[in-house]
Amino acid sequence: MHWLTDFFTKVILIILRIFPPETSSKISLESLKMLHSFNIRLNKKVNHKRDKNINMCGITFDHYLGLSAGIDKEGKYFNSLCSLGFSHIEIGTFTPLAQKGNDFPRVKRITNKKSLINRLGFNNPGVLEAAQNIKKNKINFSGVLGISIGKNKDTSLENAYKDYNYCLDNCFHLADYVAVNISSPNTEGLRELSSSDYIEDLTSQINTKAKELEKNNLRSVPIFLKLSPDEDEKKFRSNYFDFYIE
């Protein structure tokens, strides 16, 4: 039966590659959601003995492997994605207002490397619609849910904290953790938020909002700052050691 599974997998991949990457992604997500609705599990049981009970910031993860933001950009598919065996799912990135993202073409397949180049640019339905989707799909969800938040393309860097706080206000009660995304290269100027011109005010404003929400919701939600992998770690640590999300 193993050869048959491999055969069908190859056929499905060939068919999906006929379509543009974003269309293929949507077909895959909708198919996975349908299979999950029929209680069909696709993951093989893996022994994670060495990875059991990973505790970080008050959250317990079953194992190390999770799914990063950028796959479920609507808050509709995290439940079915978790059925693949991930310990946690991060959804988004969500912005205050809905936005279409960058112009097409914005995803390119590198077939010989089995990879993609992504220049989507925070396409999402907006945090209010996303929150409604999350509520609907979280009923039977038993994993760890992270929510990634960002700023709208047209929001100035000086006012970026307002976008992050608005998103935080509307998703805090739904998240196991929140990721403040200032790392994407696909929103012009976004990475400048990690510079000395903005980082202190940004993190201070978000910390203040988070403490207010903790008090109002009677729960603590870890908030992580997502930085670009291109940052000079030594320079960043020495310059901004005191600027962090609590």
| Unreliable segments of 5+ consecutive residues | 241-246
Order of helices and strands: HHEEHEEEHEHEHEH
Give the spatial strand order of the biggest sheet.
3-6-7-8
Category by helix and strand content = alpha/beta
Helix content: 25-40%
Could you outline the blueprint of secondary structure elements for this entry?
Layout: H1 2-16, H2 21-37, E1 54-56, E2 59-61, H3 78-82, E3 88-94, E4 107-110, E5 115-118, H4 127-137, E6 144-149, H5 160-171, E7 177-181, H6 199-217, E8 223-226, H7 233-240
Parallel strand pairs: 3-6, 6-7, 7-8
Antiparallel strand pairs: 1-2, 4-5
Account of the 3D structure:
It is a single chain. By secondary structure, this protein is α/β, with parallel strands linked by helices. Helices cover 35% and strands 15% of the residues. The chain is built from 7 helices and 8 strands, in the order H-H-E-E-H-E-E-E-H-E-H-E-H-E-H. It has helices at residues 2-16, 21-37, 78-82, 127-137, 160-171, 199-217, 233-240; strands at residues 54-56, 59-61, 88-94, 107-110, 115-118, 144-149, 177-181, 223-226. The protein has a 4-stranded parallel β-sheet with strand order 3-6-7-8. It has a two-stranded antiparallel sheet with strand order 1-2. A hairpin with a 4-residue loop joins strand 4 and strand 5. Helix 5 packs parallel to helix 6 (199-217). The chain is globular, with a radius of gyration of 19 Å.
